[in-house]
UniProtKB/TrEMBL annotation:
Organism per entry: Pongo abelii
GO molecular function, one term: medium-chain fatty acid-CoA ligase activity
GO BP annotations listed: fatty acid metabolic process
Name used for this protein in its record: ACSF3 isoform 12
Phylogenetic classification of the source organism: Eukaryota, Metazoa, Chordata, Craniata, Vertebrata
Entry similarity comment: Belongs to the ATP-dependent AMP-binding enzyme family.
Pfam families hit by this protein: AMP-binding (PF00501)
Top-level lineage group: Eukaryota
Length: 235
């Protein structure tokens, strides 16, 4: 456990021969960016780069990114440096990890957070207060076995709801906040806008701040940022 993040210490730990060795590494995109900046400054010789890549490919089984959108240039550069295609996942304090990309590298889609983990149920919904017996319309519902999409609502964005044993029961001593966080039938409201397409789930952003309505369309600020960061002149 490090008291604070240090790119130098992380690289030293990756390359260390001490046991037990790291074989799984999880971080947010910003940390991967900082590690690559350190790499560019200190691993300039081809033999050092080859050694680093060989160690990462041989010793580290899995590298994971989460908690924020992963820019495509970060994913691609990290793969060039370490040989690892980052596995993207989705989770939050209240639910733990809920969605994850597949372990099979070839099946991962950049920008997607994959499918529900074992024991997790998810729904993509839109509010419908007038609907009898339910306060929302279900666009898609899934678990580890697959996702069923409501006919006519294919690739329809909506709020992600989560249910399962990993979901927290309540906010401590905050009954009203807890009540607002769950639907009447017990699903946790994440507050994130999501879409199901190409067999996987895609996070569009926080519904309250990242979704922009313009010209009759809902635009994901995260998706705009993702494309901007892919431009070679933007760092």
């Amino acid at each position: 456990m490090m008291p604070e993040f240090s790119a130098q210490q992380v690289w030293e730990k990756f390359l260390s021969s001490e046991t037990p060795r790291i074989n799984v590494f999880m971080a947010v995109p910003t940390i991967y960016t900082k590690l690559m900046e350190y790499y560019d400054r200190h691993f300039t010789q081809p033999h050092a780069q080859d050694f680093l890549r060989a160690v990462c490919e041989e010793k580290i089984r899995l590298m994971v990114s989460g908690s924020a959108a992963l820019p495509l240039p970060v994913l691609e550069k990290w793969k060039n440096i370490t040989g690892h295609t980052l596995l993207e996942r989705y989770g939050m304090t209240e639910i733990g990890m809920a969605l994850s990309g597949p372990l099979t590298t070839a099946a991962r889609l950049p920008g997607s957070v994959g499918t529900p983990l074992p024991g997790v149920q998810v729904r993509i919904v839109s509010e419908n207060p007038q609907k009898d017996g339910c306060s929302y319309t279900i666009h898609a519902e899934g678990d580890e076995r697959g996702t069923k999409v409501t006919p006519g609502l294919e690739e329809k964005e909506g709020e992600l709801l989560v249910r399962g044993p990993s979901v927290f029961p309540e906010y401590w001593n905050k009954p009203e906040e807890t009540k607002r966080a769950f639907t009447l039938d017990g699903w946790f409201k994440t507050g994130d806008t999501v879409v199901f397409k190409d067999g996987q789930y895609w996070i569009r952003g926080r519904t309250s701040v990242d979704i922009i309505k313009t010209g009759g369309y809902k635009v994901s600020a995260l998706e705009v940022e993702w494309h901007l960061l892919a431009h070679p002149s933007i760092t």
